[in-house]
Design goal:
- The chain is α/β, with parallel strands linked by helices and 283 residues long.
- The chain folds into two domains: 9-89 and 176-282, Metal-dependent hydrolases (TIM Barrel), CATH 3.20.20.140; 97-162, DNA polymerase, domain 1, CATH 1.10.150.
- It is 43% helix and 15% strand.
- The chain has a seven-stranded mixed β-sheet.
- The longest helix has 26 residues, at 91-116.
- The N and C termini lie far apart (46 Å).
- The model has no long low-confidence stretch (mean pLDDT 91).
- It binds zinc ion (2 copies).
- Residues 69, 80, 194-195 line the site of one zinc ion (ZN).
Amino acid sequence: MKKKARFQADLHCHTTASDGSLRPGEIVELAYSKGLKAIAITDHDTIDGWQEAEEVANRLPIKVIRGVEVNTDWQKREIHILGYLLDEESGSFNSRIKELQEKRKIRIKEILSKLKLFKIDITFEEVMQYAKGNSIGRPHVAQAIVHKGYARDFREAFDNYLRIGSPAYVPRYKLTPTEAIRLIRDAKGIPVLAHPGAQRIDKEINLWIEDGLQGIEVYHPEHSCEDSLRYNAMAEKLGLIATGGSDFHGKSIKTGIDIGDKGVNLEVVDQLERLKQKYIYNY
Ligand SMILES: [Zn+2]
Ligand SMILES: [Zn+2]
């Protein structure tokens, strides 16, 4: 018998469509087995996990919420913007997401040519085998490095070659938070600032509300109790939706964090859906 999740909804999960280790369908089944009632699929810069997750959810009493996590850059800090309930047919969102995917691939090729200088010979195709979806990233390069015996484990691969400041590090092209928020709003989605406690960003939140931000991720494994209390109070004061989730990537990738370890109750899912309804009628 699996340990039951403490929450009804986990609004932050990654699948093999980006850098998670479980397929979208497996994530939905796992969430269901833990007693979750709703789960959001929020892969980095891709919506490719939605379809499979929804197909599996159709035969289970669990709701899949369409989401995405857009990685952005703000004053040399990486800021993540979650988007919920976006319209898939939104042309500008899809084309911009595709452009980000292409730029990810170019970056990986640059990393691989730098690795060659250290006599580490890994082909793009080998890395692609690990990136089962489209959202290729450094974790997939790390897996290839370990598999070919150039490092003992994932952490060593990152520390020696891939981390910021390491010899094969290549910065990634990113949107600004403002661009990501507008992109999500254009697709009639709800933009939410992901784990602000991890980057210690409080002051900028007001700025981004002007851009259209509608929520803050209050509950997240990297938030202390004090962080969650502070952001919850902030969300209340500013009229933002207070979301939460485990940022689950699969146990082999982020150890110690299980699906449903952080989350919210279904009332928050209702709040997101009500906001979405407003868009449909008032846009
Ligand atoms: Zn994140
Ligand atoms: Zn995440």
